[in-house]
Amino acid sequence: GTSAAVSSSIAAEVHGLDFLARDIEDTANNATRFFVLRKRGPTSRAATVVGRDADGDPQKWKTLVLFTVDHADPGALADSLGVFKKHRINLTSINARPSGVAQWNYIFFVEFAGREGQEKVDGALGELERF
């Protein structure tokens, strides 16, 4: 074929997929997080990735939000990150990657504890979309 995926054996069975390789982790106690991906609206500059810890505890959900900011607006990134503090959401990871749109223009990957459907998360994501 022309595509491949890293998945659990259950996902492969459900979708009738063949295995190209098994046990591809580099350490025996490695845990892979699986995500649900979706774009947030037709004009949004953000996408949301939601996953949860391997033990399935709903209290351990993590969300990864991908967004960009107006790079000509001083403090735009700080304002965006301030939304999470305002809603008392713990950030667990922040990364930036080139957007591919223009030089020195970045996409920001922000992972935090929580998930959509929680009041504080819904409030923060709604506010973040206004940037």
TrEMBL record:
This is Translation termination factor eRF1. Pathway: Amino-acid biosynthesis. Residues 1-39 form the Prephenate dehydratase domain. The keyword Lyase applies. It comes from the Eukaryota. Gene3D superfamilies: 3.30.70.260, Periplasmic binding protein-like II (3.40.190.10). Keywords: Amino-acid biosynthesis, Aromatic amino acid biosynthesis, Lyase, Phenylalanine biosynthesis. Residues 65-131 form the ACT domain. InterPro entries: ACT-like_dom_sf, ACT_dom, Preph_deHydtase.
